[in-house]
Specification:
mainly alpha, 20 helices
């Protein structure tokens, strides 16, 4: 039977040997065939690739059973071959219209995709992110761009804390430049463009320095260009709004939004949207709430007027059914809960209360737990309705009761 682990060892040893001697230019089939072999061998570990007729010829082995040292060696050799393909000036990589280089990059990227993200890729997180950035920056091939950006998105989506900051600024720079190239040739938004914005959404989550870099690269103008160029793409709009939501959560970033009346005007109009249920309107209200929370003195625009926009938001909130099903993912509710304490903007407090009431109703096992763990139940219990704006008081009372009911129910499960 085929011994997958032994096969990987032989292929990796061969590639390591020729990498050390810089012989790929002499035997050009080595990197292409070597990466393809790794791809096929790792594929045999996947349950969905283990067909009944393979049982008799392949020694059963799952990816989780492969020794971690072997995995790391395989990843290292793939990373090094990718580096060579990106940076080498050897004639081989440029023959036949760069097809040699493309085949190597394609096979290495496909091989990387066979590993588990983030568990396996975490072994060489920085190195893999670095070569993926290199592919996106050096190759305009659609397929290679898609493979690389989808993997970058998977990596940053799973990264938390300090790990997300590893080459995060470089990721923002790379993806923004890629989007700028894409929109010059893409008539209709596709998976690559949507994934590019999703990657920016994920990499800017709770990382103000990444949001600042996006703004510095004229990302707000890029948002407006894409919205104008693809006005009917709901998925693209949701991804772009998610990114703007991350920016709005950071006080140091909000001043840049306030400097752009086109952005504020767009979000004011999106408050009226009924696309995708309440999602577009809800996300627009989130951005408006965070901007409004800085107080009237920080709202420097006269068009649109602050109170006009906040009144529109209240009208939208009153339209939304509090039991609406959602397609949303929050790692933390703290950015929302903090708005409950913002007396400078009662409209933002109302949005925050609606969000917590809805989320704890929609998925109590997850969001009621988060609300309790992060002190949301105590915050809403202590919320003084007597000090709250009178015309908004009945709605806030309704939402307060729902939140307390949901969190109390969770605590007694």
């Amino acid at each position: 039977k085929i011994d997958i682990e032994r096969g990987l060892d032989v292929v990796v040893q061969c590639l390591e040997h020729h990498l050390s001697k810089d012989e790929f230019g002499v035997n050009e089939t080595l990197p292409i065939s070597g990466a393809a072999c790794i791809y096929e061998l790792i594929s045999l570990c996947s349950e969905y690739r283990r067909f009944p007729d393979m049982q008799d010829v392949v020694k059963k082995l799952t990816l989780s059973e492969i020794n971690i040292t072997v995995k790391k060696r395989v990843l290292w050799v793939l990373v090094n071959v990718l580096r060579l393909a990106i940076t080498s000036s050897n004639e081989y990589w440029n023959v036949t219209g760069n097809q040699g280089s493309r085949a190597v990059l394609n096979n290495c990227l496909l091989a990387l995709w066979q590993f588990n993200v983030p568990e396996d890729i975490a072994l060489l997180y920085r190195e893999i992110v670095e070569v993926l950035i290199g592919v996106v920056n050096s190759r305009e091939d659609y397929h290679l761009q898609k493979l690389s950006i989808l993997m970058l998105n998977s990596l940053v989506c799973c990264a938390e804390g300090e790990k997300k900051k590893i080459l995060g600024v470089e990721i923002v720079e790379t993806i923004v430049r890629s989007i700028e190239r894409q929109i010059t040739t893409t008539e209709q938004p596709d998976q690559l463009l949507e994934s590019s914005w999703t990657t920016l959404w994920n990499v800017t989550d709770e990382t103000p320095e990444h949001s600042i870099k996006f703004i510095q690269m004229e990302g707000l103008q890029l948002f407006l260009r894409c919205k104008e160029q693809y006005p009917n793409s709901l998925n693209l709009l949701k991804n772009m709004m998610g990114l703007l939501g991350n920016i709005a959560e950071n006080k140091m970033c909000r001043k840049y939004l306030m400097e752009n009346n086109e952005i504020i005007r767009e979000f004011s109009m999106l408050l009226d949207s009924q696309s995708d249920g309440i999602e577009v309107s809800y996300n627009a209200a989130g951005v408006v709430s965070h901007i409004g929370s800085d107080g009237a003195e920080e709202w420097t625009l006269t068009d649109p007027d602050r109170q006009f926009v906040l009144d529109k938001m209240v009208q939208a909130i009153n339209r939304w059914p509090v039991d609406s099903d959602r397609s949303i993912n929050y790692r933390s509710l703290l950015p929302i809960l903090q708005l409950l304490e913002c007396k400078a903007c009662p409209e933002a407090q109302l949005w925050a209360a609606w969000a917590i009431a809805n989320l704890t109703s929609y998925d109590a096992s997850r969001f009621a737990r988060l609300a309790v763990d992060e002190g949301g139940d105590k915050m809403i219990q202590q919320f003084n309705l007597d000090d709250y704006r009178e015309d908004l008081r009945p709605k806030m009372l309704e939402l307060k009761k729902i939140i307390l009911q949901n969190t109390e129910h969770y605590k007694h499960i």
